[in-house]
Design the sequence.
């Protein structure tokens, strides 16, 4: 379904007013009424975070305001854990690990992506930000991962991600690896199309 503009305006207002409780209530009402889905809600939240980041870049918002907005969105996402599980396929066999590499601290988009994988039929393990490559390789082995999703927020992090991916590929040549995040939003020169994941088109395990 299309993103609900009314919900977007409501959530934007609640975030601008630093109203965590109001934002949670608005999201819950929209989901309960069928006005939005979890996937579309996450698209709305992602757009709102982009808006807040743009305001900070223009000097229209301070760092603490951006952090507070991010915290409200993170709380909202975590509050939906039971809904995500209830909406996911019962049978889930393939495993995906999601992580942000060293010195990459922006992982909220990746957290929402983990839920998108769950809804698409994967067993998703979100490992968060700033994960050393040796730890990522250990997790892939211990968790029996079939795929790995990595995120980069800037051009600098995208360059570092290349070495990260190369190291993992050497250890696990058959592992499916996806990359994404703001650093890949406009172009992905040097990265094959099949590696760059569209968060709005997460494939089911059967499609991989």
Sequence:
């Amino acid at each position: 379904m299309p993103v609900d503009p009314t919900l977007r305006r409501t959530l934007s207002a609640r975030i601008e007013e630093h109203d965590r409780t109001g934002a949670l209530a608005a999201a819950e009402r929209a989901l309960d009424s069928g006005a939005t889905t979890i996937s579309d809600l996450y698209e709305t939240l992602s757009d709102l975070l982009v808006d807040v980041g743009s305001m900070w870049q223009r000097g229209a918002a301070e760092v603490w305001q951006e952090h507070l907005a991010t915290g409200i969105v993170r709380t909202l996402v975590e509050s939906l854990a039971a809904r995500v599980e209830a909406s996911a396929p019962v049978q889930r066999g393939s495993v995906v690990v999601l992580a942000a590499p060293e010195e990459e601290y922006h992982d909220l988009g990746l957290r929402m992506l983990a839920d998108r994988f769950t809804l698409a039929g994967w067993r998703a393990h979100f490992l968060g930000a700033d994960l050393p490559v040796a730890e990522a390789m250990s997790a892939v082995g211990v968790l029996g991962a079939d795929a790995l999703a990595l995120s980069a927020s800037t051009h600098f992090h995208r360059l570092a991600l290349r070495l990260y991916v190369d190291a993992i590929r050497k250890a696990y040549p058959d592992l499916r690896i996806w990359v994404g995040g703001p650093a890949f939003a406009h172009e992905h020169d040097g990265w094959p199309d099949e590696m760059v994941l569209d968060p709005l088109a997460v494939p089911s395990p059967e499609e991989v």
About this structure: The radius of gyration is 17 Å. Residues 91-207 form a domain with the Rossmann fold fold (CATH 3.40.50.280). DSSP finds eight helices and four strands in the chain.
